[in-house]
Amino acid sequence: MRITDLTRRQGDFLLKIDNAYFEPGKIHGMIGSNGSGKSTLAKLIMGIIPADSGCIDYEGLTPRDITMTGQKPYLLHSSVYQNLIYPLKIRGIEPRAELVDQWLEKAGLQHKRKQYALSLSSGEQQRLSFARALIFGPKLVIVDETLSNLAPDGVRLFESIMEQQQRENPITWITISHQLVHISKLCDEVHFMEQGRLVQSGTPEQVLKHPTNPSVIQYLANTEVSFKG
Fold first, then answer.
1. pLDDT of residue 220 exceeding 70
2. Which pTM does this prediction carry?
């Protein structure tokens, strides 16, 4: 997916991306301070809000291929099962029992399929939302702060699902997170945003360990994190 001359003004804030490329089949990390434009860019990619100008070339992807998960998942007022199969229903895909059971097991919800989804714990709701985002076989997934406030075992579960997906059938991920250890561990490329601009992109090694942009250096200096590996 290539972004060219993309702009979106919201009040005093202006997002302006001159050029960005998200290589297919890779995990891309999006980092930067609050208010830097990360979530705005995600909403533009999803088509939730329109751009004022510019182009997003999806390189053949359609809205049916793209999904997004957020920090506060929206769940239907129905069962775990009905929530999970919803993306299949709206795409006219038969919810095969084998597929549903597989994702219930991955999410650790195999014994709660009939439970009212909104009665789940916050961590269980996040796991359900994540499974629901992946069950229909998307080609681009945007993860917007989904891992925030999760317990360590929940973060490990999300990471393991992403790693398994990339081993078996690589897709494109854009994960927005302040958890730099997670970004360093999983991502193939990292993109740093500041004040609506994309100021540095590269491998985790280049951006997180050997940054060249002063804003990235300052951001990392103010972030308490230890990188592994």
1. yes
2. 0.91
100: tokens are 């549903």
C-alpha distances (whole Å) from 118 to each of 19, 132, 147, 218 are: 41, 14, 19, 41
d(C-alpha 146, C-alpha 74), whole Å: 12
Whether the per-residue pLDDT at 8 is higher than 70: the answer is yes
Q: List the strands of the sheet with 13-21, edge to edge.
A: 13-21, 2-10, 53-57
Q: Determine contact, residues 86/132, Cβ cutoff 8 Å.
A: yes
The crossing angle, in degrees rounded to 10, of helices 122-134 and 80-90 is: 20
Q: Could you tell me how many helices (H) and strands (E) the chain has, helices first?
A: 8, 9
For residues 205-226, average pLDDT: 86
Asked whether the beta carbons of 187 and 202 are under 8 A apart, the reply is no
Grade residue 149 by pLDDT with cuts at 50, 70 and 90: low
Neighbours of 23 (CB within 10 A): 11
Question: Strands, DSSP E only, in the chain?
Answer: 2-10, 13-21, 27-31, 53-57, 66-69, 140-144, 172-176, 189-194, 197-202
Phi, psi of 23 (to 5 degrees): -65, 135
**What pLDDT score was predicted for residue 192?**
97
User: What tens digit of pLDDT does each residue of 99-119 get?
Assistant: 999 999 999 999 999 999 999
d(C-alpha 54, C-alpha 64), whole Å: 22
